[in-house]
Structures are given as C-alpha cells and as structure tokens.
Specification:
Layout (H helix, E strand, L loop, with lengths): L4 H12 L3 H7 L4 H15 L6 E2 L2 E2 L1
Antiparallel strand pairs: 1-2
Length: 58
C-alpha cells in the first residue's frame, strides 16, 4: 500500500481542525478537493477515517 504524504498531512490538518473547511485551508486546498482526497484515502484503506453527519465531519 502506498500513501501520499500530502494526503496524510491533509488528514492530520482536518483531524486537528474543528471543520473540514478549516483543515483544507491549512493544507492550502479547497474543501471539495480535500474531501475528495480524504475519500480516496478511505477507499484505499477500505476504512472510514472521519465520520460525516448533517453538520459536517466528526
């Protein structure tokens, strides 16, 4: 399994932030791009990394 360090850094930024938008901003990405990259990382791992609800990410 190969992990892109940029994706792992993005995950850390989002996990440490109160929202995906703020984590994406710290990683210098749009929220849509950050969401797509995290979803791709979850697909690669076949595991949920962040839980989404009606208010966003958890």
């Amino acid at each position: 399994m190969h992990f892109d360090l940029a994706d792992l850094r993005l995950f850390i930024h989002v996990a440490e932030s109160p929202s995906l938008t703020q984590g994406a901003r710290r990683a210098h990405l749009s929220p849509a791009a950050a969401s797509a990259r995290i979803k791709a990382l979850e697909a690669q791992l076949d595991s949920r990394l962040l839980y989404r609800d009606s208010r966003g990410w958890n």
